[in-house]
Protein backbone atom coordinates (compact mmCIF):
# COMPACT_ATOMS: atom_id res chain seq x y z
CA UNK A 1 0.00 0.00 0.00
CA UNK A 2 3.05 2.27 0.27
CA UNK A 3 3.03 2.51 -3.52
CA UNK A 4 -0.52 3.89 -3.30
CA UNK A 5 0.43 6.42 -0.61
CA UNK A 6 3.36 7.68 -2.70
CA UNK A 7 0.95 8.25 -5.59
CA UNK A 8 -1.51 10.10 -3.31
CA UNK A 9 -4.23 7.47 -3.64
CA UNK A 10 -6.29 6.07 -0.78
CA UNK A 11 -8.74 3.20 -0.65
CA UNK A 12 -12.46 3.72 -0.06
CA UNK A 13 -13.31 4.02 3.59
CA UNK A 14 -9.76 4.94 4.63
CA UNK A 15 -10.81 8.36 5.92
CA UNK A 16 -8.02 10.04 3.97
CA UNK A 17 -8.14 13.32 2.07
CA UNK A 18 -6.19 11.71 -0.76
CA UNK A 19 -7.87 10.67 -4.02
CA UNK A 20 -10.06 7.63 -3.33
CA UNK A 21 -9.66 4.43 -5.34
CA UNK A 22 -12.72 2.14 -5.48
CA UNK A 23 -12.14 -1.25 -3.89
CA UNK A 24 -12.65 -3.04 -7.22
CA UNK A 25 -9.54 -1.30 -8.61
CA UNK A 26 -7.33 -2.17 -5.65
CA UNK A 27 -6.51 -5.62 -7.11
CA UNK A 28 -5.55 -4.00 -10.43
CA UNK A 29 -3.48 -1.43 -8.58
CA UNK A 30 -1.68 -4.18 -6.70
CA UNK A 31 -1.03 -6.00 -9.98
CA UNK A 32 0.51 -2.85 -11.51
CA UNK A 33 2.61 -2.38 -8.37
CA UNK A 34 3.85 -5.99 -8.41
CA UNK A 35 4.77 -5.81 -12.10
CA UNK A 36 6.53 -2.46 -11.68
CA UNK A 37 8.49 -3.48 -8.60
CA UNK A 38 9.29 -7.02 -9.77
CA UNK A 39 10.93 -6.13 -13.08
CA UNK A 40 13.79 -3.81 -14.01
CA UNK A 41 11.81 -2.10 -16.79
CA UNK A 42 8.07 -2.32 -17.45
CA UNK A 43 6.17 -0.69 -20.29
CA UNK A 44 2.39 -0.56 -20.01
CA UNK A 45 1.20 -0.19 -23.57
CA UNK A 46 -1.60 -0.57 -26.09
CA UNK A 47 -0.74 -2.76 -29.07
CA UNK A 48 -1.85 -0.22 -31.69
CA UNK A 49 -0.41 2.89 -30.02
CA UNK A 50 2.33 4.56 -32.06
CA UNK A 51 3.81 6.36 -29.03
CA UNK A 52 4.03 3.02 -27.20
CA UNK A 53 5.77 1.52 -30.23
CA UNK A 54 8.40 4.29 -30.20
CA UNK A 55 9.22 3.73 -26.52
CA UNK A 56 9.50 -0.02 -27.00
CA UNK A 57 11.75 0.39 -30.07
CA UNK A 58 14.00 2.82 -28.19
CA UNK A 59 14.41 0.44 -25.25
CA UNK A 60 15.04 -2.56 -27.51
CA UNK A 61 17.54 -0.47 -29.50
CA UNK A 62 19.45 0.29 -26.29
CA UNK A 63 19.64 -3.43 -25.53
CA UNK A 64 16.96 -3.49 -22.86
CA UNK A 65 14.45 -6.34 -22.70
CA UNK A 66 11.54 -4.64 -20.93
CA UNK A 67 8.53 -6.43 -19.57
CA UNK A 68 5.74 -5.28 -21.87
CA UNK A 69 2.12 -5.35 -20.77
CA UNK A 70 -0.24 -4.82 -23.71
CA UNK A 71 -3.31 -3.64 -21.82
CA UNK A 72 -5.69 -4.27 -24.72
CA UNK A 73 -4.60 -7.93 -24.79
CA UNK A 74 -4.35 -8.48 -21.03
CA UNK A 75 -7.13 -9.88 -18.88
CA UNK A 76 -8.05 -7.02 -16.54
CA UNK A 77 -6.20 -4.59 -18.79
CA UNK A 78 -8.97 -1.99 -18.77
CA UNK A 79 -8.86 -1.81 -14.97
CA UNK A 80 -5.06 -1.58 -15.03
CA UNK A 81 -5.36 1.26 -17.54
CA UNK A 82 -7.75 3.06 -15.16
CA UNK A 83 -5.18 2.70 -12.39
CA UNK A 84 -2.47 4.16 -14.64
CA UNK A 85 -4.76 7.09 -15.54
CA UNK A 86 -5.11 7.81 -11.82
CA UNK A 87 -1.36 7.54 -11.23
CA UNK A 88 -0.31 9.96 -13.96
CA UNK A 89 -3.22 12.37 -13.56
CA UNK A 90 -3.70 15.11 -16.13
CA UNK A 91 0.00 15.85 -16.35
CA UNK A 92 0.72 13.72 -19.41
CA UNK A 93 -0.60 11.13 -21.81
CA UNK A 94 -1.18 8.01 -19.67
CA UNK A 95 0.25 5.50 -22.14
CA UNK A 96 2.86 4.38 -22.60
CA UNK A 97 3.62 4.22 -18.89
CA UNK A 98 7.25 3.32 -18.21
CA UNK A 99 8.54 2.11 -14.86
CA UNK A 100 12.28 1.73 -14.29
CA UNK A 101 13.59 0.14 -11.12
CA UNK A 102 10.09 0.02 -9.64
CA UNK A 103 9.55 3.75 -10.03
CA UNK A 104 7.29 5.49 -12.50
CA UNK A 105 9.45 7.37 -15.01
CA UNK A 106 6.74 8.68 -17.33
CA UNK A 107 5.58 8.38 -20.88
CA UNK A 108 7.10 9.00 -24.29
CA UNK A 109 8.09 12.62 -23.68
CA UNK A 110 9.86 11.86 -20.41
CA UNK A 111 11.64 8.80 -21.78
CA UNK A 112 12.80 10.70 -24.88
CA UNK A 113 13.92 13.67 -22.76
CA UNK A 114 15.95 11.36 -20.54
CA UNK A 115 17.45 9.70 -23.60
CA UNK A 116 18.42 13.03 -25.18
CA UNK A 117 19.87 14.54 -22.00
CA UNK A 118 21.85 11.37 -21.21
CA UNK A 119 20.08 10.29 -18.03
CA UNK A 120 18.18 7.27 -19.41
CA UNK A 121 21.14 4.87 -19.72
CA UNK A 122 22.32 5.50 -16.12
CA UNK A 123 18.75 4.88 -14.88
CA UNK A 124 18.65 1.62 -16.81
CA UNK A 125 22.05 0.58 -15.46
CA UNK A 126 21.03 1.38 -11.87
CA UNK A 127 17.90 -0.75 -12.33
CA UNK A 128 19.95 -3.68 -13.64
CA UNK A 129 18.47 -3.50 -17.13
CA UNK A 130 21.83 -2.73 -18.79
CA UNK A 131 25.27 -4.02 -17.89
CA UNK A 132 27.52 -2.10 -20.29
UniProtKB/TrEMBL annotation:
CDD domains: GRX_GRXh_1_2_like. The keyword Repeat does not apply. Signal peptide: none annotated. GO terms for cellular component: cytoplasm. Its main location: cytoplasm. Keywords: Cytoplasm, Redox-active center. Residues 41-104 form the Glutaredoxin domain. SUPFAM superfamilies: Thioredoxin-like (SSF52833). It is found in: Cytoplasm. Belongs to the glutaredoxin family. CC-type subfamily. This is Glutaredoxin domain-containing protein. It comes from Nelumbo nucifera.
Amino acid sequence: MQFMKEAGIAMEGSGSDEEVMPMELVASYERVRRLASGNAVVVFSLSGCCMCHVVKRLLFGLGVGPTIVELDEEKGGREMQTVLFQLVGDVQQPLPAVFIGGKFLGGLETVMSCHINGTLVPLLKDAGALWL
